[in-house]
Amino acid sequence: MALSRQPFVLLFLHSVRLLVLRGSCIPSAACYSTRFHTPGYLCHRFRSATPPQLHNMDKRQDNIEVTPVPSAQPKEDAKQQRLRAREEQEQQKRMLLETIVSDMDSKSFGYLAPTVTSLPIRNWVDIKDIDSAKDQIVWLRGRISEVRGKGAMCFVVLRQQHNSLQCIVDSRQTVVSKDMVKWSASLSMESIVDVLGKVVMPEVPVASTTAKCELQVHKLFCISKANPTMPFLIRDANNTDDEEICKNPSVIKVNQDTRLDNRPLDLRATLNLAIFKIQSEICQQFRNFLLKRQFIEIHSPKLLGGTSEGGCNVFKLKYFDNDACLAQSPQLYKQLAVVGDFRRVFEIVVTGPVFRAENSNTHRHLCEFVGLDMEMEIHDSYIEVVDLIDEMLKAVFKGINTQCREEMEVFKKHQPSIEPFKWLEQTPRIRFSEAVEMLRGTELADTIPNDISSFDFSTEQEKRFGRLVREKYDTDYYIIYEYPMNVRPFYTMPMERDGIMFTHSYDFFMRGEEILSGAQRIHNPELLLKRAQECGIDPKTISSYIEAFKMGASPHGGCGLGLERGP
C-alpha cells in the first residue's frame, strides 16, 4: 500500500513546489484581511490546511528557499504621499493667488486688505497723460480690461474710461518674482488694481491701446476683485455699429435687456461714457451762456396739485388725501418768474426731471427726461428770443467740438457710418408755410392737405424735409417758425397771415428731428382765458396761472430743449 501511494504524494509535493515558485497565488499576511474573494485567499485556505511538517520536508528535500511576497502597503503609502504633495501644491497655489497684504511698502503684489482705509500719498498719473511721463516711476489705478500670461511674463491692459495702457509684469526683472507673474495672470477682468511701474516707450509704439507707451510693473495690488465671470464683456458692449454687426457674424452684440439689467457694467462701455460726457458739456455750455447774459437759474416744483399745464398727459398720484401729479414742464413757473420781474430765467431740470405720461414707442418721446428751459422778456419782437437761442445752440456746438474731442473720436470709432454734423453761421430760417410748399414738391405731396390750419409735420415728413434742407443749404441745423395756432399750446401768442391763424412759435431741428420747441407766450389774461376755453381746458384748473397775469406782465417767450433728443 505504501508503494502504491508514493506517486500520488510525489505529485502533490511537486504541485505545492510550483505554487511556491510562482508566488502569485500566495498573498502576504497583510492581504488576508482584505482580499477575501481572490485566488490568493483560496490558496491561503489551502495552505493553512497543510500540515507544517509537509512544508519543512519540502524545503529539506528540494532545498528550495521561500521568497517573501512583497507587501502592498508601501505602494499605497507612496500613492498617499503623492496625493498629499499634490494637495500641498494646490494649497500653496491657492495661498499665492489669495495673497492678502496690508503694507504696500514691504510687499510687491497681492489683494489689499479691506480694512486698509488709509495709504501713504503716492505720485499718481492718469493714463491719458502717461505718454508725457516717459522714464518716470509712477502709480496709476485702473480697471483690468485684458490679462494674459506668457511664460515668464504677464501682460495686463488697464482701462480708465476710454483710455487704455499695456502693463508688463516680467520675472526677468529683479523686482518681479515668478510668483508675482503667476498671481498677476490669475486676476479677473474688471478688477481694480493699483500699479507702480516705470513708463517706457517701446521701439514700436503699442497699437492696441490709446497710450503709445508701456508700463514696466514693479508692484501690483488688487484694490477690488471682480467676479471671474461677467454677464457680458465690455468689448462686446462696445459693438454698436449695426452695419458692422450685419456684415461680420463673429461680432457679438449685447441685447438691450441684458445691458439694462447690468447697468453699472454697461456704463463702462466707452460709447456710454462719451455720451454722458457730452451731455454734461451741453448742460455746462447752456448754463454758462445764459449766466453771462444775466439769466437767473431757478428750480421749479416737480410735485404738483391738480394737473400740470392743464394737460392730461401727466402721471397722477395721491398726495396724502389729495390728488397730485408729476410736473411735465417748468413752463408755467418760468413765466411766473418773468412776471415776478426776474426778467430772464432758465432751468436745467436735472435733479428733478420732467415726467410725461406719453405712451410713445420712439427714441424722442420719453416718460422721464432732462429738460433745458429758458424764458426771457421781449422788447420788440419774438425774433429776439429766436436770435438768442440760435446763438446759444451754436455756442454749444462749438463747445462740444473743443471740449469733447476725445469723445467725438469715440463716436467716430463706434459709429463710423454717421456723417459729421454740419451747421452754418447763418442758420436757415424757414416759415412753416414755406416748408409745406417745399414738401409738396416731393413724393410726400399726397400726404399734405390743402388746408394747413390744423396740419403739423409727421416724423416721416420732418425727416424728408431735413434731407431737403441738407440738399439745398448743406446744413443739418435749421429753424422752422410760425406754426398754425391749432397745433400749438393754448398759451402761444397767435397771429394771422393769409387768412390763417398762425403763431409766434418756432422749432429748431437737427437732421430732420426737432430738438427744441418754443414761442412767445400770451401775457394778456383775457386772451389767455379765451384760448384755454377754446382748447377745452377748465379755467379752474389754471386759475392761479391766469390770475398772475392780472398783476401786470411783460411780453415774454422762451423754449424747452430735451437733452436726450437728437438724431
Briefly characterize the structure:
The protein has 567 residues and is an alpha+beta fold. It contains 17 helices and 20 strands.
Please explain how this structure is put together.
By secondary structure, the protein is α+β, with helices and mostly antiparallel strands. The protein folds into 4 domains: 12-62, no CATH class; 100-224, Beta Barrel (OB fold (Dihydrolipoamide Acetyltransferase, E2P)); 234-267, no CATH class; 276-562, BirA Bifunctional Protein, domain 2. It has 17 helices and 20 strands. The chain has helices at 2-22, 39-48, 52-62, 73-97, 178-185, 234-237, 242-247, 256-261, 263-266, 270-291, 331-342, 383-403, 405-414, 432-440, 459-473, 525-534, 543-549; strands at residues 100-101, 109-112, 137-150, 153-160, 163-170, 192-200, 214-224, 296-297, 303-305, 316-319, 322-326, 344-355, 368-377, 429-431, 477-481, 494-497, 500-503, 505-510, 513-520, 556-562. Helix 10 crosses helix 12 and helix 10 runs antiparallel to helix 13.
